[in-house]
Amino acid sequence: MGNSGNNSKRTVRTFGLASFLNDMGSDMIYPIWPLFVKSLGADMTWLGFLDGLGDAIVSVSQAVSGYISDRIRKRKFFIWLGYMFAALSRVGYAVAAVWQYLIPFRILDRAGKMRGAPRDAMIADVSTQENRGRNFGFLRAMDNLGAVCGIIICLLMVKYFGVGTKIGFQHLFWIAAIPSVIGVVMILAFVREDRPSETKVFKGLRYRHLDANFKFFLALSVFFSLGAFSYSFLLMYAKEAGFATESIILLYLAFTAMASIASFPFGKLADKIGRKTVLQIGFLFWILLCVVMVFFRPKNGDLSVNGAGFWTVVIVFILYGLHKGALDPVQKAFVSEVVPAEYRASGLGFYQMCVGLCALPASFMAGRLWDKYNVAVPFAVSLALTVTAVIMMTFVKESMKKEE
After folding, report:
1. Amino acid 17: pLDDT
2. Domain harbouring 337, CATH code
3. What stretches of 73-126 show up as alpha helix (H) in DSSP?
4. For 303-343, where are the alpha helices, taking DSSP H only?
5. Rounded to an integer, what distance in angstroms lies between the CA atom of residue 385 and that of residue 29?
6. How far apart are CA 142 and CA 139, in angstroms?
7. Which of 23, 25, 329, 369 is 20 to 30 A off residue 149, Cα-Cα?
8. Cα-trace Rg, the chain
9. pLDDT in tens, 262-287
10. pLDDT digit string (tens) for 296-346?
11. By C-alpha distance, which of 392, 367, 390, 391 is closest to 377?
């Protein structure tokens, strides 16, 4: 019992530290990613394609790795391999000469997210009813802490070490690969996976197992996701409004911090007033963001601290953080309650895959509309899709039944 408890603590701590390191490396890149892609000659259409492709790969890789992991009853392999993919992709970014060379490394990077479902399952396996929530909370806290540290490092490197040029970007990517390599070594050295003693027949989810309520919620989520393009569009909006690179990184930090701070209170609010209401609040934040982007865009040069343009951009990023804080954690809880309990894990994976696959057409078409018309058009289309999703949401039942 004692050895089992020690192994559980070591596993959770190792995953926490590995997650901290990987997120630190990732968020050294995310704030400047669209600027880097543009520096290699891509327009907004192809930036949207790269981001959408990445998000689609994430959804597929997590669903596939989770299914295979359950079927073969192995977790650790997918976890360390996912972190290794992240490290190798950053090396690829560093040596890319034109944006087209980024495509295979973007696929490799996002395929690294295969670690998510097996890692979460392994943490659940080594946890008990009494500490499972605390263990997942620790992991999420380390994710957030790593992200904040990565953004701060990115800001310091831009400010003091000349990152912002093509060569500067490359140096940053080389450095960002190091934390994930350390994470791989830690997992291989300190995480022990015990093969389950009992043999269970693995039963996969079938479409016929899903009721009409879940299918309707999936449909409205797809409507919304087709207009929920990547964060890169907001960063490029700030860039075109006249914000310097350092200020853009601070805006990214602001939305990340806002999402982290808002997640817990929105989760508690969902317990009190219902998941459906909080999801509608999350949609409302995105609607407000789209309204600002369509009707109140600042002009370059109106970016003094006292200028209306400055605060318009800041408000956009605050709204985005609130939107993510309300939507991301509550969405999973809602899905887990409207899908049949015996297919809960598979239902979550299926939902995330369907929504994630919408990211490719969403970001690609948003970039195309931006290039062909202007920044307001993709947000106008997203506004229409989100309003449609909100109207559809009123017909979704809160849950199938109360749990015993």
Report:
1. 92
2. 1.20.1250.20
3. 76-95, 102-111, 116-126
4. 308-338
5. 30
6. 5
7. 329
8. 21
9. 877 887 787 788 888 889 999 999 99
10. 765 554 544 445 578 888 899 999 999 988 887 677 777 767 776 656 656
11. 367
Question: Which two structure tokens, joined as six digits, stand for 32?
Answer: 């400047």
Q: Which two tokens stand for residue 238?
A: 């700030």
Q: State the Cα–Cα distance between residues 139 and 367, nearest whole angstrom.
A: 34
* Domain-located, residue 370: yes
Cα gap 103→107, rounded to integer Å: 6
Ramachandran category for residue 228: left, alpha or beta (phi over 0 → left; psi -120 to 50 → alpha): beta
Q: What average pLDDT does this structure show over 127-156?
A: 79
Q: Are residues 183 and 286 in the same domain?
A: no
Residue positions counted in the chain: 404
Q: Hunting for tokens 């990152």 — which residue is that?
A: 163
Mean pLDDT of the chain: 82
Structural domain boundaries, residue 135: 10-190
Tokens, residue 237 = 């909006």
Residue 206, burial from CB neighbour count under 10 angstroms (0-12, 13-18, 19+) = exposed
Residues 6 or more apart whose Cβ sits within 8 Å of residue 220: 388, 389, 392, 393, 396
What residues contact residue 78 under an 8 Å CB cut-off, 6+ apart? 65, 68, 69, 114, 115, 117, 118, 119
What was the pLDDT predicted at 263? 78
Q: How far apart are CA 364 and CA 382, in angstroms?
A: 13
Provide the pLDDT confidence category of residue 209 given band limits of 50, 70 and 90: low
Q: Does residue 94 lie in a domain region?
A: yes
- Asked if residue 212 and residue 179 are part of one domain, the reply reads no
Check the CA dihedral 369-372-377-379 and report its sign: positive
Q: Is residue 216 part of a domain?
A: yes
* Tokens found for residue 321: 């953080």
Specify if 198 maps to a domain: no
Q: What is the number of other CB atoms lying within 10 angstroms of the CB of residue 200?
A: 8
What values do phi and psi take at 218, rounded to 5?
-60, -40
Compute the distance between CA of residue 250 and CA of residue 311 in angstroms, rounded to an integer.
14
Q: How far apart are CA 51 and CA 57, in angstroms?
A: 10
Residues 251 and 112 in one domain: no
Query: 150 with 27: CB under 8 angstroms?
Result: yes
Whether residue 356 contacts residue 55, with contact meaning beta carbons closer than 8 Å, is answered with yes
| Statement to judge: residues 147 and 249 lie in one domain | no
